[in-house]
Specification:
Helices cover about 35% and strands about 25% of the residues. It is α/β, with parallel strands linked by helices. Strands 1, 2, 3, 4, 5, 6, 7, 8 and 9 form a nine-stranded mixed beta sheet that branches. Helix 7 runs antiparallel to helix 8 (about 225-240). It is globular, with a radius of gyration of 18 Å.
Length: about 240
């Protein structure tokens, strides 16, 4: 299905230490029918210089903007609005795609279904790119765990017709997005049993604040009881004080 256009979105901010690998991960894909949209939040380091350096290698497929935003989910929504592809993937500027990722996603895509979330395995690495874990979190377990967002691709029709990312949360809005999708019977989840992306530890999504938000989201969606919500909230509050 070489005629399926993919839209890849990268939010970035002061990412000069990692964004080269993100850019290289896109360039290494064998499937080349894609557009690449970088939404920079007004970086003050060398991020934009690196993007400009790489721009010619994308042969017109890369566009970028740089302006202040209201956090990472605002940046994601900006990129999604610009996307022209049938399928949208979002990869942060400290993560990177595995070779063969785009082809695997296109192979799994069913053009007869407008609302699809295609997701796969994700490798977790440290700052030295040493493998720490590999895994796939099933959509059937969303009441407890979120999907691995760097390994998720969403059809543009979901964003256009149903929802985008809430800016009410700073770290865990993707979890709320997937929970809402799981509650919508018209949305089909398609697992791909192949490593699609590499996630570098140490980002905001690993923070205690993200866990606090996730606990609130689980309670709001009826995944946990009020008693468990309060208990977890207390434990996380104590942990944040200790840290």
């Amino acid at each position: 299905m070489g005629d399926v256009l993919l839209s890849i979105v990268t939010p970035s901010f002061n990412s000069e230490k990692t964004i080269r690998q993100t850019l290289e991960g896109v360039l290494k894909q064998s499937y080349t029918n894609y557009e690449y949209i970088i939404v920079d939040g007004g970086s003050k380091d060398g991020t934009l210089d690196i993007i400009r350096e790489y721009e010619p290698r994308f042969q017109g497929r890369l566009t970028y903007t740089s302006e202040p935003d209201n956090g990472i989910y605002d940046a994601m929504n900006k990129g999604v609005r610009k996307a022209k592809g049938k399928i949208v993937g979002i990869i942060n500027s400290d993560d990177y795609y595995e070779e063969g990722c785009f082809q695997a996603v296109v192979d799994a895509y069913d053009a007869s279904l407008p609302y699809q979330i295609i997701y796969g395995e994700m490798r977790t690495v440290n700052e030295k790119d040493e493998e720490l874990a590999v895994g796939l979190i099933s959509h059937r377990n969303l009441s407890q765990l979120t999907l691995n967002h760097p390994a998720v691709f969403v059809t543009k029709d979901i964003y256009a017709d149903k929802m985008v990312y809430s800016t009410d949360y700073r770290y865990s809005s993707d979890y709320e997005f997937f929970l809402c999708a799981g509650e919508d019977s018209s949305i089909t989840f398609v697992p791909v049993y192949q490593i699609l992306s590499n996630f570098r530890t140490g980002g905001a999504s690993n923070s205690n604040k993200a866990a606090i938000e996730a606990n609130e989201i689980q309670y709001r969606h009826g995944c946990i009881s009020k008693k468990k919500y309060r208990l977890v909230k207390l434990k996380l509050k104590v942990k944040s004080i200790i840290m």
